[in-house]
Amino acid sequence: MRIGVVTFPGSLDDADAARAIRLAGGESVALWHGDADLKGVDAVVLPGGFSYGDYLRCGAISRFAPVMSEVVTAAERGMPVLGICNGFQVLCESHLLPGALIRNDHRTFICRDQRLRIENNRTPWTTSYAENAEVTIVLKNGEGGFVADEPTLERLEGEGRVVARYLDVNPNGSLHDIAGITNERGNVVGLMPHPEHAVEALTGAGTDGLGFFTGLAALTAT
């Protein structure tokens, strides 16, 4: 399984995502924002960070990067795409996912080990988890509040497209405690917490995040 990791100017967690992919048994392929070339990968990760310095809205400039035209086309054809934190914002700006991410309701940056419930384990990125599994994954964001209009929220809830939900505390004001969602087809997932920071027992919040990467490899193997 060859998984591309896109690096934008300002990406911070591309190396972490690449390491998580390798730990899960996949092959990480570096993709550059300025190249309209996915190098024949099987899936794509848009990592966390501050792409293009988060000028304008977060992810608003990244959506116009040459590589994103290829990502959008591939996603519409069914390629698995995972957007983590800033990557989630890029997916929303690119209209691959509905809604938007806005400044945290407490107006401060937050960094914490966050408990989540995995509510949709039918996406390529979540098949390693049991439905309603409770996990702890690192969360760090300043603009992580997910918002959408009521009809969109009703559709996400009614179609089972909420992938993960915050437990114990809502850290950023996300509506319906939403931490991650998927598109109608289920191949595109946006997640505000950082599973790539929870893949080794020696550091971080443990290994609960590794499932986001092992599930894809296992799905391909079958």
Quick structural overview:
With 222 residues, this protein is an alpha/beta fold. It has helices at residues 14-23, 66-76, 86-93, 150-158, 211-221; strands spanning 2-7, 27-32, 43-46, 81-84, 100-102, 110-118, 133-141, 145-147, 162-166, 178-182, 188-191.
Strand portion: 25-35%
- Structural class by sheet pairing and helices: alpha/beta
Through-space gap between termini:
12 Å
Any low-confidence stretches, pLDDT <50, length ≥5? none
Using only CA atoms, what is the Rg? 15 Å
The total strand number stands at: 11
> Which geometry do the CA atoms define?
globular
The main sheet comes to: 9 strands, mixed
Mean pLDDT: 94
How are the strands of the biggest sheet laid out side by side? 2-1-3-4-11-10-9-6-7
What order do the helices and strands follow? EHEEHEHEEEEHEEEH
Count of individual helical segments: 5
Query: Can you give the helix content as a percent range?
Result: 10-25%
Protein architecture, described:
The chain has five helices and eleven strands, in the order βαββαβαββββαβββα. The strands form two sheets. It has a nine-stranded mixed beta sheet with strand order 2-1-3-4-11-10-9-6-7, with helices on both faces. It has a two-stranded antiparallel sheet with strand order 5-8. The longest helix has 11 residues, at 66-76. 22% of the residues lie in helices and 26% in strands. The protein has helices at residues 14-23, 66-76, 86-93, 150-158, 211-221; strands at 2-7, 27-32, 43-46, 81-84, 100-102, 110-118, 133-141, 145-147, 162-166, 178-182, 188-191. The model has no long low-confidence stretch (mean pLDDT 94). It has 222 residues and is α/β, with parallel strands linked by helices.
